[in-house]
């Protein structure tokens, strides 16, 4: 249950982020309300060094130069802060930053200390405070190997003319280029001035209030995010980037060579925003644009506010993979608006967005397509449950134990079990009642952090309303705090993939190539390929390749499913296609499991992996290389990928 308003600022600072002599909900110079800091034990984030109940960041102002020659971003970060009376220090997150100096709002130097470095978390950056300190200004630069940043040569872009820079902040990567409190529970508004080489364009996950200018041969771009957001949502891209409008408040950014195909593929984006608003309430971020990045982008999409970052692997030529856009758009409510306070409740972002994604797909493309994607999601969930480590019984819970995972382990449980949970509630209470509750949930928690306990308190107060029979049917605590899949899970119609499942049986017994393949949707093709036995004779694989030319498929999901099957069967004719696929894009969902499965096959796959990885690695984001580098050093049995639906 949410605290009554009169108690929400207990201790004045504790929840509202105010000085103790400033009662009530605070606002700051940016005009944004100061988001609360939660004080319950389940809201304590073990992935940050920050101590926000003592001193916290409320607004961030960046003034940075992008240097492609040195692979560094450098300048100043000015942090508006609030702290308890008597607080001596504010603790920030730092991962490899080179700090030149720190001063207060009066330009007086402040002592600081960078603590010991943890391989995953980086280092605490402790800055001394004076009683009147309200702003600290940090002069710094990022390291050339900053974990959030990827620097691409012109040859690694679609146009081949200019270099490219992209950032990826989720989950705790932004501390490698921004000194701030890098926790989803510490929301902060922000603004930025970004200077880039002449002729290049900078875009960020915030509105651009004014047109860029040229200053001393550089392009100068300004951005401003007035809403308080989690720090991982601050994103930057710089390169040869152009824009095309898709509607009154939607558009697509991409390299000029990619822009026409991207605009055609994502032409339904404006309709998606309208459909989502009917379900979940007003879109509160102004514009919704998508940015198609070079193929090295490690995720399918990233829900940065105002501007979703996308991989070009979702451009299939037939809009069959645009559910990725629907998913990232859904994060405008689930994740960006109401955000998990810690990564132990990541399902509140990903599970809710996956549920909403399929509702948007249903609204635009029909119930059948939504049911097919739900069924594929259940297949994925079943696989994830089966693959969970035997010694980690909590690995399949929605609310996770910090000891069971790291901040960057966004496995399929969060996506698919979370989505199934919401779909089950909908099935039990009815769609009208559930839609009304969910819209209200997003409104009640807008621009605030939430926990699983808060989610459950809200649904009990505003939907269950003390009905013991309904409480018993929903199994709320069972879904969130226990492992496995509860028995009440709602499922799509049993005949959703009747033709494809029949075709699987026919192919498994007599290698009968399905005659309906040409009319099947992408989801139907995926069901067929993924349901085939993992061990097949070479003649059966030959029949699939000769009939459907899967080695040349333009659909990245279908091609991945085929390559995965072929690798499991040591199918030699797939090797050129496999190597081309691994070296032409860097989406972790695809490249991590393929490389790990190759490496685990010492006789056939490992030699392919060893000769391919050095060629592919330079195209991959650090998020991906950190996962793959160890298997080429001393790890003969690599763990399964945990990239989730991203």
Secondary-structure map with pairings?
Blueprint: H1 13-16, E1 55-67, E2 72-83, E3 89-94, E4 98-104, E5 112-114, E6 123-128, E7 135-141, E8 149-152, E9 164-167, E10 188-197, E11 201-204, E12 213-215, E13 218-229, E14 236-239, E15 242-247, E16 250-254, H2 259-265, H3 269-280, E17 288-292, E18 301-302, E19 307-310, H4 323-330, E20 338-340, H5 347-365, H6 367-387, H7 412-429, H8 431-444, E21 448-450, H9 452-464, H10 468-474, H11 476-481, H12 498-510, H13 522-531, H14 538-548, H15 556-568, H16 575-584, H17 588-600, H18 605-617, H19 622-628
Parallel strand pairs: 1-10, 16-17, 17-19, 20-21
Antiparallel strand pairs: 1-2, 2-7, 3-6, 4-7, 5-6, 8-9, 9-14, 10-13, 11-14, 12-13, 15-16, 18-19
Q: Describe it for me?
A:
There is one protein chain. The protein is an alpha+beta fold and 646 residues long. It has 3 domains: 5-237, tricorn interacting facor f3 domain (Immunoglobulin-like), CATH 2.60.40.1730; 343-481, Neutral Protease, domain 2 (Orthogonal Bundle), CATH 1.10.390.10; 498-632, Serine Threonine Protein Phosphatase 5, Tetratricopeptide repeat, CATH 1.25.40.320. The chain has helices at 13-16, 259-265, 269-280, 323-330, 347-365, 367-387, 412-429, 431-444, 452-464, 468-474, 476-481, 498-510, 522-531, 538-548, 556-568, 575-584, 588-600, 605-617, 622-628; strands spanning 55-67, 72-83, 89-94, 98-104, 112-114, 123-128, 135-141, 149-152, 164-167, 188-197, 201-204, 213-215, 218-229, 236-239, 242-247, 250-254, 288-292, 301-302, 307-310, 338-340, 448-450. A 7-stranded mixed sheet has the order 4-7-2-1-10-13-12, with no helix packed on it. The longest helix is centred in the middle third of the chain and has 21 residues, at 367-387. The chain is globular. The model is unreliable at 1-25 and 635-643 (pLDDT under 50).
């Amino acid at each position: 249950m949410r605290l009554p308003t009169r108690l929400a600022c207990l201790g004045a600072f504790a929840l509202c982020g105010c000085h103790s002599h400033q009662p009530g909900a605070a606002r700051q110079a940016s005009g944004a309300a100061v988001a609360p800091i939660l004080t319950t034990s389940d809201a304590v984030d073990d992935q940050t060094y920050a101590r926000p109940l003592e001193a916290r960041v409320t607004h961030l102002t960046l003034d940075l130069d992008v240097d492609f020659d040195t692979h560094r971003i450098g300048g100043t970060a000015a942090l508006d802060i609030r702290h308890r009376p008597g607080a001596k220090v504010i603790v920030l997150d730092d991962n490899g930053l080179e700090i030149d100096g720190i001063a207060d709002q009066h330009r007086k130097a402040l002592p600081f200390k960078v603590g010991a470095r943890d391989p995953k978390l980086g280092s605490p950056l402790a800055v001394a405070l004076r009683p009147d300190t309200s702003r600290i200004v940090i002069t710094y630069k990022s390291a050339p190997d900053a974990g959030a940043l990827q620097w691409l040569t012109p040859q690694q872009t679609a146009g081949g003319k200019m270099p490219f820079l992209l950032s990826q902040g989720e989950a705790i990567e932004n501390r490698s280029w921004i000194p701030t409190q890098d926790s989803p529970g510490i929301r902060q508004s922000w603004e930025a001035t970004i200077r880039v080489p002449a002729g290049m364009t900078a875009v960020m996950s915030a509105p651009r209030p004014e047109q860029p200018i040229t200053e001393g041969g550089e392009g100068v771009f300004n951005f401003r995010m007035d809403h308080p957001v989690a720090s991982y949502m601050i994103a930057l891209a710089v390169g040869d980037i152009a824009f095309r409008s898709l509607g009154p408040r939607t558009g697509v950014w991409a390299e000029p060579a990619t822009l026409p195909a991207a605009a055609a593929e994502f032409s339904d984006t404006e309709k998606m925003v309208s459909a989502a608003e009917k379900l979940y309430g007003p879109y509160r971020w102004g514009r919704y644009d998508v940015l198609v990045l070079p193929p090295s982008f490690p995720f399918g999409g990233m829900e940065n506010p105002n501007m979703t970052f996308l991989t070009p692997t979702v451009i299939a030529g037939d809009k069959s993979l645009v559910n990725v856009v629907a998913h990232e758009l859904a994060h405008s409510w689930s994740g960006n608006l109401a955000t998990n306070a810690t990564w132990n409740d990541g399902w509140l972002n990903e599970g809710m967005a996956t549920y909403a994604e399929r509702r948007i797909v249903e609204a635009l493309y029909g119930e059948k397509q939504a049911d097919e994607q739900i069924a594929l999601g259940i297949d994925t969930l079943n696989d994830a449950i089966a693959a969970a480590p035997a010694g980690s019984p909590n690995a399949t819970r929605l609310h996770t134990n910090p000891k069971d995972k790291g901040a960057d382990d966004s496995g399929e449980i969060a996506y698919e079990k979370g989505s199934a949970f919401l779909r089950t509630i909908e099935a039990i209470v009815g769609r009208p009642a559930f839609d009304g509750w969910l819209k209200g949930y997003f409104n009640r928690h807008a621009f605030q952090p939430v926990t699983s306990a808060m989610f459950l308190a809200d649904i009990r107060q505003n939907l269950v309303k003390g009905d013991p029979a309904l409480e018993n049917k929903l199994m709320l605590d069972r879904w969130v705090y226990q492992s496995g899949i509860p028995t009440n899970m709602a499922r799509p119609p049993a005949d959703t993939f009747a033709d494809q499942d029949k075709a699987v049986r026919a192919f498994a017994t007599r290698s009968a190539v399905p005659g309906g393949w040409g009319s099947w949707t992408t989801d139907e093709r995926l069901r067929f390929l993924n349901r085939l036995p993992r061990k097949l004779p070479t003649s059966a694989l030959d029949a699939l390749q000769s009939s459907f030319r899967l080695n040349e498929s333009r659909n990245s999901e279908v091609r991945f499913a085929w390559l995965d099957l072929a690798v499991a069967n040591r199918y030699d004719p797939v090797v050129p296609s496999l190597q081309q696929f691994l070296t032409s894009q860097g989406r972790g969902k695809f490249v991590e499991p393929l490389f790990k499965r190759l490496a685990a096959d010492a006789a056939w796959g490992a030699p392919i992996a060893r000769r391919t990885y050095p060629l592919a690695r330079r195209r991959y984001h650090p998020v991906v290389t950190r996962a793959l580098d160890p298997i080429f050093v001393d790890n003969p049995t690599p763990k399964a990928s945990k990239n989730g639906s991203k």
